[in-house]
Amino acid sequence: MELLTKLEELVLIAVLKLKDNAYGISIYEFVVNITGKEVSVSSVYFPLERLVRKGYLQCLQGKPTPKRGGMSKRYYRLTRAGFKALEENRSLNQTAWKGVAAILKNTPEP
Fold first, then answer.
1. What is the pTM of this model?
2. Sequence-distant (≥ 6) Cβ neighbours of residue 88 within 8 angstroms
């Protein structure tokens, strides 16, 4: 199993949830909304490209539009390997967090 960074995990979740509307800016907005932190747009594009190279995402070209100056959007879709990586990451997080709530509940604040 290859570990995902937190940002890679969020990007994969965004693509999964956004379905047919998963393109750079919508993914960026998802990450900003979920984290509550302003990040640079490029900080989302780097993991997108890395996830495509790893085979976790497929990149599809949309049709050029006049609104975008004749440029097309690049849409993303999870691959079978992407689904598997996301599920493995979720399972790992659940295992790691098991019992933490009880420990925190019984730990006095500093």
1. 0.87
2. 1
Q: Which CATH number is 6-105 given?
A: 1.10.10.10
Amino acid (one-letter) located at 63: K
Burial class, 89, CB count within 10 angstroms (exposed 0-12 / middle 13-18 / buried 19+):
buried
Tokens 């932190």 belong to 37
In sequence order, what DSSP letters do the residues of 85-110 get, joined into one string? HHHHHHHHHHHHHTTHHHHHHTSPP-
Give Cα 77 to chain centroid, integer Å: 11
Amino acid residing at 72: S
Q: CB 51: neighbour CB atoms within 10 A?
A: 24
For the chain, what are the domain ranges? 6-105
SS3 state at 41 = coil
Each residue's pLDDT tens digit, 19-70: 999 999 999 999 999 999 988 999 999 999 999 999 999 999 877 677 666 6
Tell me the C-alpha distance between 76 and 90, whole Å: 20
